[in-house]
Amino acid sequence: HPISMCSAEITHxxxxxxxxxSLASNIQQIVGLSCLHRFLLFAAFSPQDPDVYVKxxxxxxxxxxxxxxxxxxxxxxxxxxxxxxxxxxxxxxxxTRAAGSxxxxxxxxxxxxxxLLKKGSKISDEADLExxxxxxxxxxxxxxxxxxxxxxxxxxxAKRLVQHLSASDDAxxxxxxxxxxxxxxxxxxxxxxxxxxxxxxxxxxxQFKVSLKGNPLDxxxxxxxxxxxxxxxxxxxxxxxxxxxxxxxxxxxxxxxANKHNGRKLTWLYxxxxxxxxxxxxKNKYTLQxxxxxxxxxxxxxxxxxxxxxxxxxxxxxxxxxLMQVVGILLKCKLLTCxxxxxxxxxxxxxxxxxxxxxxRININVPMKTEQKAEAESTQKNVEDDRKILIQASIVxxxxxxxxxxxxxxxxxxxxxxSSRFKARVPIIKQCIDVLIEKEYLRRDEQKKDMYFYLx
Length: 456
Prior knowledge:
By secondary structure, the chain is mostly helical. It contains 16 helices and nine strands. The longest helix has 39 residues, at 7-45. The protein is globular. The two termini are 56 Å apart.
């Protein structure tokens, strides 16, 4: 039965709704100012700290979510206002403005995930870690550029898997499951393939060791064979001469793999490889956990305690800037000394025989600045390239379904279709339309320039 209401009741209801809308608007402004204040402080004192960044976002959201729950009985309108405010400030704030891109927000969120899932994380309890990952997903849902998060997350996950730095396989699987639930199978398909490759590599290493019975290697060795299409590692961009001590292992496995998989080619990623060196030249015996480049440099001092920078470069074949950073780390660790403050080709590097350390196992494998800078630049470039491919694919799908479609309608449908991955820019969509016209996927109507036809 229809509900009858008198004029006074209708007026009262209207006033109540107006007050509610006014309060919701005020809540949005308050949340906005609070977020702004926190982000300005963050930008001033710790612009590159993902831990502080994510915690400031979740702190503000939790504060106003509790306010809506206690004061407004979890009213849907107020909850929506809080989420809308947080979404705005996650993608546009003092930090993203300082970086000149909204992509800074998903990058910092991915780095925060890496700090949680890596060995040495501040959160060791699995239940607490699961709770924190849930909070990460709350922020993730506010992020517009989810493809940027995917790129950075994939690269950091790849390093955790290759370098055996994951704190928990269960936590890794839980995070992937959450991302899959939020964005679908395609979003996590390559990430899941990475886990499969690690499992297959363990089996391959065991099979290789079995094949060596009767003619074993003189060093411990394990290999990880990764599918080039699933892992975010590019081809090596510099030459490198493997030390003779490792050449035999390299050749034996290369031959074994070629016999096992005819037609497949291995590309060795020496910059991602690492090993252990046991020292016998110091007063105490140490085990150094080092990169392959560091190992190659240190092994040169087996023949002489002194070596010029040029000699090191000739023996390792590394680029000057790369070798400079490798040597710089060894100097900082006080394993080597140099006769000059500024290293030149004729500078003499010496093994510091008086080296001492309280630890017997020492990790000297720290990231190089050139690697970190190149990684950030290549990630951003990969994102832009991938976006163009996704936009073109979306345009073709829509045009194929519609057969004929107007310019504005096509823009609207492309933006809507890609909104779950990233916020496409209209100028880029227009560029992609022109590319598809050149490739003869589309044809522009001669009479109506804003009408497109799909070419089968």
